[in-house]
Design brief:
Layout (H helix, E strand, L loop, with lengths): L3 E2 L18 E5 L4 H9 L3 E2 L8 E3 L4 E4 L8 H9 L3 E4 L3 H10 L12 H12 L3 E8 L2 E11 L2 E9 L4 H16 L3 E5 L3 H5 L3 E3 L1 H11 L25
Length: about 240
């Protein structure tokens, strides 16, 4: 039976999550900042549709990207060097979330980024723990992503694009900046071919939780972010 959480119930151990559906752990509780902090620090995240109770997940295996393993293809490197764009950080958080909510997803009719989620993560953003990276082209928001940072771990939530490669541009800048800041892992949650092409790979939930236990201890970069890196001279990742 799926555990039901009250407002003060702790999460069950992540290893108790169902195999089918993969990772479903519990339902209920709320999306308060403290609840979300507790969830992310244990490798758990909320994912539910409008009209459903809050559902909490911890899939096994888990898709992650170690910042030093980012793969930049020849075509992406050319885009980063030559395409006119501007990277902005933490200037349009709600707009990024709303764009992610309306972005079409293969195999999905709706979105889990409902109004309750948007309000909760905007609150995290106001507290300095949720961030967005934005790609601007011709004065318009062309793509981007958002996620949560705890210590030196980043939890990617969603991305969108309105112009070709706009989300990849934002993602590449995020990863390279996190690497420069000493972040140890980016949790990508679910496996996709898109993320795999950028260097993400699957690890066990046990390994993820062990790494998070160390990384979240570092109280680091709370507040609005500013990026200092440029990828205008980036070279493609050598093929193995």
């Amino acid at each position: 039976m799926l555990p039901w959480l009250s407002s003060d119930s702790p999460f069950p151990p992540a290893e108790n999550a169902f195999r089918r559906p993969n990772g479903l752990l519990a339902a209920g509780a709320d999306l308060s900042p403290q609840r979300l902090f507790d969830a992310y620090s244990q490798g758990i995240f909320p994912w539910f549709s409008e009209g459903e109770p809050i559902l909490w997940w911890s899939p096994n295996p888990r898709m992650v990207l170690f910042p030093g393993e980012l793969k930049i293809s020849r075509s992406l490197a050319k885009t980063l060097r030559n395409k006119p764009y501007e990277i902005r950080v933490d200037t349009s958080f709600r707009a990024v979330m709303e764009a992610c909510a309306s972005a079409p997803r293969e195999g999905q009719d709706g979105t889990w980024i409902n109004s309750e989620m948007i309000d909760a993560y905007c609150h995290l953003h106001e507290l300095g723990h949720a961030h967005c990276v934005e790609t601007w082209m011709d004065g318009e928001l062309a793509g981007g992503l958002y996620g949560v940072a705890l210590g030196r771990a980043f939890y990617g939530e969603s991305m969108f694009k309105r112009k070709t490669d706009a989300s990849k541009i934002a993602f590449a800048h995020l990863v390279r900046q996190l690497e420069a800041w000493g972040f140890g892992i980016i949790d990508c949650q679910m496996k996709t071919t898109h993320l795999a092409s950028l260097g993400a790979r699957e690890i066990s939930r046990r390994e993820l939780c062990a790494r998070l236990a160390e990384l979240v201890k570092s109280k680091y970069l709370v507040g609005k972010w500013q990026f200092s890196i440029s990828l205008r001279n980036v070279q493609p990742t050598p093929m193995e």
